[in-house]
Amino acid sequence: MAAPISPLYEKIPQKNTLHRALEFTIFFLLLSLLAYRLLSLKNNGFAWLIAFLCESWFTFLWVLNLSSKWNPVSYITYPERLLQCYQVDELPPVDMFVTTTDPMLEPPIITVNTVLSLLALDYPANKLSCYVSDDGASRLTFYSLLEASKFAKLWERYEELGQKIEGATLKSMPYELSSAEFVAFSNVERENHPTIIKTRVSGVMTNAPFMRNVDCDMYANNPQIFHHAMCLLLGSKNEQDCGFVQTPQCHAPRPTPRA
């Protein structure tokens, strides 16, 4: 591994003088209100005490929230430097998890779009693994993902893939599972299907050092998102400096029914 020549990211503090002045004003007003409540407590009875306790709790929560926003910073990542520091085969693998539940509330075409957007990221293909967690055990979702896997291999026209999935949505039994494709799935019923552990609270489900968790109605809007994330994760001096990387969410609108 080549020694890093330049930092992979830059941390820039943001100026927030006006914001801090506003927060100081609000904090002074809250303390003044609490002092007024406390000094007038004897003359106003039990209701005044309840108001004082509630406002004290609100002030405490407000201070906790303010402490996390007191020193805002922005990060500038340099993905072009990542490959200068690490060879392609040295990049860590990433497991990607997509969660879905109901194919009626969350149309399969949206889940397929999410999976395809993750598989199309600018990252070594042998370093990526995509898993779909379907709590509803829907055959329609499985059929859609099966067609998506064929699409990813052959790269057929996207319109044909969408027509297949939309046509399967109108059928009562969109797809008959064969034992050669997925034996365990054909024996699962919705009534006895155990609840799948949410990947957002369990890190045991992944063997990769890093994982990405998205909902089925979200997609990666930047093909180099993993390069930017690795700049922060690998560029940190120790593991305590960076525990996770959160990117702006991009939700796909639900398709409207056709007339």
From TrEMBL:
Q: Which residues bind UDP-alpha-D-glucose?
A: 106, 135
> Keyword annotations for this protein?
Cell wall biogenesis/degradation, Glycosyltransferase, Membrane, Transferase, Transmembrane, Transmembrane helix
Membrane topology of the entry? Multi-pass membrane protein
Checking InterPro entries in the record gives: Cellulose_synth, Nucleotide-diphossugar_trans
Location of this chain's protein in the cell: Endomembrane system
The Gene Ontology terms for molecular function here are: cellulose synthase (UDP-forming) activity
Which processes are annotated in GO (biological process)?
cell wall organization; cellulose biosynthetic process
Q: Which Pfam families does this entry report, sorted A to Z?
A: Cellulose_synt
Domain of life assignment: Eukaryota
Question: Which is a Gene Ontology cellular component entry for this protein?
Answer: membrane
Sequence intervals crossing the membrane: 21-39, 45-64
Q: Which PANTHER family match?
A: X-BOX TRANSCRIPTION FACTOR-RELATED
Q: What protein name applies here?
A: Cellulose synthase-like protein B3
